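Let us practice reading a record.
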Amino acid sequence: MVLDNLGSSLRGSLDKLQGKSRLDEDDVEEIVKEIQRSLLSADVEVSLVMELSSSIEDRATGEEPPAGTSARDHVLRIVYEELVDLVGDSTDLPLESQTILLAGLQGSGKTTSAAKMAWWFSTKGLRPAVIQTDTFRPGAYDQAEQMCERAEVSFYGDPDCDDPVKIAREGLEATADADIHIVDTAGRHALEADLIDEIEAIDSTVNPDRSLLVLDAAIGQGAKQQAREFNDAIGIDGVVVTKLDGTAKGGGALTAVNETNSSIAFLGTGETVQDVERFEPNGFISRLLGMGDLKQLSERVERAMAETQEADDDWDPEDIMEGSFTLKDMQKQMEAMDRMGPLDQVMDMIPGLGGGIKDQLPDDAMDVTQTRMREFDVIMDSMTEAELEDPRSIGASRVRRIARGSGTDEETVRELLQQHKMMERTIKQFQGMGEGDMQRMMKKMQQQGGGGMGGLGGGGLGPFG
């Protein structure tokens, strides 16, 4: 994620304030240096870094902690507020009819982002359409068409036409019944006069309600010039940050936001059309500081469970809270977890499991966990329906048969059965709970940093690790 280094280094400095009721100059200086170091390593422009660190230093040394507030909590609140102020609120995108124009260089992820944004609007009950005007890049039309098919949204393009302005105009006419028009434009390997001329002509034709600049998270310092020139040409209302599923820090997005006096609209976090998040400053900074993002996690869980249920009409996740918890239920839960995305992203959203704890895990810990889940899935595919419904019927002879049939060993089969028992006990703790009891348990889990959350809780990654 953006500025990912900040989490662990800043937490280390904050941990040294435990037990202190007041801050001294050395404390503040160390924290500010960590912030500067992390922001600069994330390719945030130097002037922005100095402005942010100066504000934090002035407030930390000049403001008295409120009564009953520790020095650590006081400075954490200051850092949190200043970072939220820096990234700003999410770009205003009302759920109503509008035309959105996408700008950016070639390779920034515009075409993928267009389909992702269209999918996102479709989940809000709107009818989106993507209009592909890129006649410069070979394969742009085919890629856009395929992405829109996956997103199940309307698409318009004309591979036989070499006039992007004409395509834009006819595209708006052909998709007149759509609520949202997303116009994808061509890019170049570098800022060139013909690129600017072309996008200015398209802008005049479609008269967009909003123009968004699409930036690769790895862009770094080059974001400033891009943001300035596109802003001068068409006016930039927001930024879309792509490819945040890699190791890029994304600091260039903050530079672009500052240069255009705009904000961040969407974050692209993966390769599928569903891997897109509406930018939310509070959750974004919470994850940045290692506090997790329970709201985003809840949305991912809800979506994954709905998709899993849609794939199997006979399975209802609500039955888990009312009846027995079978191996079939466990398999469906694992399918839902797989739909939630990479485990390291999910861990970042769980309070206490991102940042420091995750950084202490071996480099291949996430891969091992994914591998173990796939092994468990293969094992369950080798079981009979009766065994999936009644795991207690699986004795030693059946363990041997299942191990042979799945190409695994008996120990892994027994680990699967043990994992099922642990998850079953966790489910039973929630069964019969009233709303007040549930809220108290969730609050306790948050205070404990997310421990005990089924398959991911306990000691880091639990039995899957």
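A brief commentary: The first strand starts at residue 98 and ends at 103.
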